[in-house]
User: What shape does this take?
Amino acid sequence: MPRIKKEIQTAKAYLPEERSLDALRAAAAGCRACPLWENATQTVFGEGRADAPLILVGEQPGDQEDKKGHPFVGPAGRILDRALDQAGIRREDAFITNVVKHFKWVAKGRRRLHQKPNAREIGACLPWLEAEIDALRPKVLVAMGATAAQAIGGPEVRVTKDRGRRLESPLAPCFTVTMHPSAILRVETQEQQEEAMRRLVADLREVEWMLRKGPGRS
Assistant: This one.
């Protein structure tokens, strides 16, 4: 399978010989390729059908995901669920995961605030994402947010200019990018939130079209 990025001290050594999703998930639980595991509750691996035609990739698990052990079950996950529903995509038809499998955070009082993973942490975790993609071989691959977009598509990919477009990738017949659902939570006004939601839904409607029609429109 084509590599997403050059590996330097990565999780590759933790990959099991069997590359089923169950085997990968079990192996990822013991990953120590970067220091993020030390402050995380657990590894949060991807979830969904083993034959899912769609993979949605975010940045990293958040506070609720870290505690519950499932991806996109917090506030951003609820926004994603709404957007998928409005776009005509069933969540159960997708495999949902993150580039980084451990929650990176900093304490602020009793709260745990998200911190952006650095290049070392992203690079260390990429073999898990590569293995997930290789195991599923999806029809459509969607990167949500800048971290996922550039980890998968390279530094030239920009959400602002490339969102909703079909991009070239050796990893899937259709590859596209959109905003991360958590970005909607950071918008200041309700009007801005509604507009951001409309744009996310519009991007996901393009994804729904790709799922039905496949490559051919850019």
Observations:
- The mean pLDDT is 94.
